[in-house]
Amino acid sequence: MIDTVNEGNGVVAVDDLPVTSDPSFEQLDRVYVKMVMLTWILVVLTIVLINVGATALSDEGFEPIIDSGATPFVLAGLFFLSVAAFVVPRVLWHSKGYQLHSHNLHYKDGVFWRAVTSLPFARVQHVELESGPLERIFKLATLKFYTAGGGSADIKIPGLPFASASKIRTYVLERSGAKMSGTDPEKESDE
Questions:
Q1: Minimal CB count within 10 Å: which of 12, 50, 112, 175?
Q2: Are 112 and 56 within 8 A, CB to CB?
Q3: Nearest-angstrom CA–CA distance, 112 and 164
């Protein structure tokens, strides 16, 4: 009997695979760090203001906090959140990166659980360029790549300069035959 299932599909040993060095990934724009810092600071300030306002408006005011000896813990918590607002964005920035090839895209992400996702352009159905309010202030954008069978983006690359994101989107779409969605770069540059 002839084995037609495995014809032309020989076994490959791991030792026979080509050796590749660790690929270098493009970093996200450094302005992304500032944007994430600002986001953290705004969140911390919102939490602090809500708590201070609620405490000040209560009948007892700040007396129970001061009398209970919780003040050092509250200050330590605020210090921790303030330090995190400056450290976490830098750590996140170093953990993310992308690589663009002629037929696929690689995206790395993760601090403790690292992942590298590879996306062949042939699988891309559409690419979305998104830019929220803070991203627009910092002239950044997020690229979202969608493939068949998924309701959400398979890869999201945040922190790209808007012009670079637009170029990458066009490059991928030309090679994939997919459709564009999101902000029109020509209209955005006119504003």
A1: 112
A2: no
A3: 28
Q: Which residues pair with 147 in a beta bridge?
A: 124
In this predicted structure, the answer to whether residue 4 has a pLDDT above a threshold of 70 is: no
Report long-range pairs for 172-176 (Cβ below 8 Å, ≥24 apart). Answer: 172/105, 172/121, 172/124, 172/127, 172/145, 173/124, 173/127, 175/102, 175/103, 175/121, 176/121, 176/122, 176/123, 176/124
Dist. CA 65–CA 60, nearest whole Å: 10
Tokens of 128: 């979305």
Give the separation between CA 33 and CA 84, rounded to whole angstroms.
13
Total-model pTM: 0.74
In eight-state DSSP terms, residue 152 is S
Answer yes or no: are the C-beta atoms of 104 and 123 closer than 8 Å: no
**Which residue type does 114 have?**
R
Q: What is the DSSP letter of 26?
A: B
Residue 142 CB neighbours (<10 A): 18
